[in-house]
Structure formats: C-alpha cells, structure tokens
Design a protein that fits this description.
4-stranded antiparallel beta sheet; 21 strands
Length: 241
Amino acid sequence: TLFAATTTGIYKTTNSGQSWEKIMTGSYWDLEFKPGSSDTIYAASNRRLFRSIDGGNSFFERYDIPTSRRISIAVTPANPNLVMLLSGGSLTSDDVLNGVYRSINGGATFASIYTGADGDLFHNYIGSDNLLGAVSYNNTIAISPTNENIVLTGGLCIWKSTNGGFNWSQVTAYGSGENYVHPDQHLLAYNMDGNIYCANDGGMYKSSNHGTTWTYIENGLSATQFYHFEIENDEGDTWGG
C-alpha cells in the first residue's frame, strides 16, 4: 500500500503501484504516517493539515494556516502523538516564515510555537547575510527518532532546535566555509540509527550528530536535473541544461 501527494490530489494504491485511486482532490506537499500506526496519516496541502484515521480512505481537515503557501510535516517514534509543521509564505510573498506549529495530541489540535524570534528559518544569516528563501521550493522539517526535543528544518540552509522548536540556531552556511552545506534543502530524514540525511540541490549530506557537522556523500550518486530545454530551429535537435 502506497500513497502519493501530488499537485492534483492524494492517490492510493493497494497493488504496489499497478493502479491508483484518487482519494483527495487538491494540491498536496507531504504525507506522514503516525509512528506505530498504519491507520493514522497526516497530509499537508498549501495551507491545511489533514488527518486520516482509517488508513487513508478518507481525510478530514484539522488545521488551517490561511496565508501559507507550503507546509511540511514531521513526526517521531520518540513521541508518536507529536506532530510538527513548518509553514512558509504569505498572500503576497514566497519568502516569509509563517512559523512552526506543534500538536501533542496526534493532530487533533495545533499551537504556534515559533514565528521568527531567532531568525527566519527559510533565510540565511551566515556569510551572505539575509538571503531570502523560496518557501514553496525548499521546505523540510525532521525530528530525532530518539529525542523529541531535537528538531531540524531546511530552507536555504539548515536550522536546529534543541528544545522542541521553541528556539532555533542556524547550523549550516550558505557560502563556502567551515559550516558550508550546499543550499536549497529539499528533504531532511532521520534513520533509526540516529543519522540524519539531507537532500539538496548539491546532492546528499549525512550527519551523525544531529546536524552539528555534515559529510558530503557522493560515491555512487549520479544525479542530474535539467532546468530548461530548447528545440534547435534549423535541425530540430533538443538541447537541455
């Protein structure tokens, strides 16, 4: 059984992807199972958090952030009832932090716990100060599987909280230097062994100390993303770069 969050809805397959059923319309960014449960699933759209308690057959709205352009979800087996959201955007801008939101009752209710007192989690303040981040392009959050108070987020750079998301510090730099990790963070994911992996526009990085230091892991990785294509007028060849 697999689920896919797409710009046209949430899809479900029960035959390993041979066929899919659309179970929700709309545009969605993220899906997470409640740790230890195959029945409770959280889904994030541009501005709303939905929850299913029947294995994804139906979803119901649990929280709305009216100005949000993108929401990412984090859960942890250290506390299966904890759900955290990272939200960014406004009605007029794609470069604004809405905040970090937390539920301690499995998504029944949420509270805003951080709105930027220590810095905008999508921005960079090390080196090239205050570079803005496109929140609908790079937006990710992860919680340690063994310590619910350790939370990491990714925008342009990676930020870390050691008190459950109430205070934050930037742990990677945008430019070259000791704390440099390639910018534009697209996914932070913990392994159960405590290692955390980061996927960004530069490839894959790994940390064994909750993001204090990172190692670029490139062996065996061959990845290319084409940003633009053009058809040559006289020959008809297609060029990409």
